[in-house]
Every structure is written in C-alpha cells, then in structure tokens.
Amino acid sequence: MNSTIFRHLFFALTLLVFIASPMAQADDAAEARQQYNEGKKALDEGRFREAALHFEATTRLRKHGAGPYAAAMAWEKAEQPARAADNFSLALELPGLDAKSKKEAQKHLDALRQSLGAVAVTGPEDLVVHLEDSTELSPPARLHGTPGSHVLIVVRGDITEKREVELTAGEVVDLDVTEPLPEPEPEPAAPPPPPPLIDEPEPEPVVHVDPSSPKTRKIIGYSAVGAGVVSAGVAVALGFKTLSARDTFEEQRTQQSYDDAKQLRLWTNVAWAGAVVLGGVGTTLLLWPEDKPRKTTEDSSFSLSATPTGVQLRGSF
C-alpha cells in the first residue's frame, strides 16, 4: 500500500514539474493536468485501462517521460503487455525521468520483450502509426505485439495505409514509412453482360415425299384399298336401310316414305362407286411394276483384242 501511494505521489510530482514549465502553453497545461487527475482517479478505483488512456492523453499534450511511464504501469495492471512495452519504450526516449525511474522502466521493458516482438517505425513526425488497436505514436516509434502477423496502420493526413508485418518474440523489425504506398491499379471494367438468349422454336422438319417412288406408291395403294373397304362397308349398311325404306313405302304409299327410300338408294350407289374407285386405284398402285434403272453411257463398255484369224471387238451397251 505504501509503495502504491509513493508511486502516485511520484507521478503527481513529476507531472506537476513539466506541466508548470514556463514554456508550456496555458491550455495544454490545463488539459494535461485534467487528464492526469482523471487518470489518477481511475487508477485508484481499479479502472486500469481507463487510467492508461488518460495518461497517454497527457503524453500527447506534453512530451515528458513521466506520462508514458505512468501509462505503462497502468497497462501492465490491465494485462496489456504490448501497450505497456510501447509506453515503457517511449518513456525511455523522452526526457524527464530520473535515473531510478529509467532503470525501473528498462527492467520492465526487458522482461516484456522476452515474449513480444517489435517493429521500429521511422518516417515523418507528422504521421501517426499503430498496430491494430494498440498505442498511437508518431515516428520514430517502437511498437510491440505478440508473435505472428500484424497490420501496421499508417495515418498520412486523410489517407490511411495498411502494411503487413511479421513479429518474432525478442526481435525487432525495421520499417521505413517515409514513402507512401503506391496506389493500387484500377480494376478493369467488367465486360457488359451478354444479351439475353431468346429461345426460338426449332423449325419443323420438312418431309419431302416423292410420289413416283415405289415406297410412296405402296403407301398410297394400301391407304386407297383400306378406304375402299370402308366405303364398301358403308354401302352395305346403306343398302339394308334402302331395302327397309322401300318396304315402308310399299306399305304406306306416302311422299315422305318415297323421298326417304330414294335418298338412301342414291347414297348407297355413291358408296359403292367410291369403294370400286378406291379399291381399283389402290390395287393398281400395289401391282404397279417397279422401274428398272436405265443403263447410262458409264455402264457401256467394249474391248478390242487380236485373234489368230483377225481382230475381235466385244462390248455391252
């Protein structure tokens, strides 16, 4: 408890020294004093992260080693070793710490660096650099992080850059951010979408029928014979009806029965005529002889040979 009180008194005395410096501006001094008081209150109440942020704000207002030293102590209590190492390193670079405090800060920093990696950033002082959500500092700065891949954020005015860094425990990576990263090449414009496909109906195949071919004649012949048979069947049925109508006329002797018998006889004759015509045409087509291929001049041949009695000519045409 006594060591804690002594440490708080040490912080207070040290901060009061550089806040009361004649060269300090009145507004910065008042703001630094307010940040320190809020940090001290948060530290007393066990709100270590909040306290560390207030002490870091004090450092941004006044470049004195006491501010980052107090922030580093608070970050250690908040179990944030990387940010504690950042502030211990900054406290050793800034003026204001006495020999005892510097020795204590170096001791803590050496212990933290055994499990942390670091990147030493150099570049213009108007830049702001930090690893992910760690301490924001201006170059030259040494930022710490756990071993592995990290993203270094570089704020260059209104432009924010991101650079990949690989950290190894106990080692320091040097990185110069003086030159900005080259602007990425613009991505090529996407090609226009293809026109929509319209499904056009496929044309129906055209079937060419050669009426002179033997196959076509047979098809028509069979069809005609079939139609003739059907017509003959109709004629037979109409014939029976015609006979019945005639008997009715002979019994009744009316004009209506006479007209009915006459009409049925007409259609019976028409059906028999259709049967005869269709049957005849179909039979003719079925019995029609197939055309034999004619011989052409290419099929003609002849030969000339010598014999003991003369010359012999043979050929076919």
Structural description of this entry:
- The protein is an alpha+beta fold.
- It contains 8 helices and 8 strands, in the order ααααααββββββααββ.
- The strands form 3 sheets. A 3-stranded mixed beta sheet has the order 3-1-6. Strands 2-4-5 form a 3-stranded antiparallel beta sheet, with no helix packed on it.
- A hairpin with a 2-residue loop joins β7 and β8 (310-316).
- The protein is rod-shaped and about 150 Å long.
- The N and C termini lie far apart (136 Å).
- The model is unreliable at 295-304 (pLDDT under 50).
Jot down its keywords.
single chain; 317 residues; alpha+beta; Serine Threonine Protein Phosphatase 5, Tetratricopeptide repeat; Immunoglobulin-like; 3 domains; 3-stranded mixed β-sheet; 3-stranded antiparallel β-sheet; 8 helices; 51% helix; rod-shaped
User: How would you sum up the global shape?
Assistant: rod-shaped
Number of helices: 8
Cα distance spanning the termini: 136 Å
Provide the number of structural domains. Answer: 3
CATH C-level name of the largest domain:
Mainly Alpha
Strand content: 15-25%
State the CATH architecture of the largest domain: Alpha Horseshoe
Strand order of the largest sheet: 3-1-6
